Model the fold of this input.
Amino acid sequence: SWCCIGGVVGLIKDLTTNTNTISGCNNHGDLETIVATNRVSIGGAVGFIDNSNTSVSTIKNYGNIANKADAGSGVSLGGAVGRIQAHKTAGVNSITSCENKGNITFAGKCINDASMSSGIGGIIGIHAGAVKKVTTTKDNKTTTSYYHFKSILTITGCTNKGTVEKTGAGSNGFHLGGIAGTINSTYNAVEDKAEATITSC
Done:
């Protein structure tokens, strides 16, 4: 399960019919976790966009974003959006003209579980396609694999003025970026494509 915290919305889930829009909002409050948990998504506008096509635009985040507790895999911290796990068949998401002025920090201990990568970014922590689970059996041995469906993300005209840092112990599976922490595409499958365009940031 996920801990989802957002300055406007914590979780957007399974809204696939139309493009959802979050625009013209400001967050001035600090967003943080202080209790240990495995998967955390915190964003200045939206914590986690899951299986939904969403447009996030003209958001300004002034609050600091911090995961102060110990955590394992899947920590996603972003000035606009913590994590996007896009729609399973046609994931299209955009982040436009957003600005982050808050500091973004993972200050807890990383438990070094790299089963799901973690990302900290000035605008978005992690972008990935929806996860597909495939189980196969051969010679009486069952193997489970995961890969991501195709997803598309466009980030345009965004600005980050806050610090992005990891101060806690442990670093397995962690990625940091001024705009995006992780653009994720893993495993070798036909659907395994994450396309991102980052311009004028």
About this structure: The longest strand covers residues 131-138.
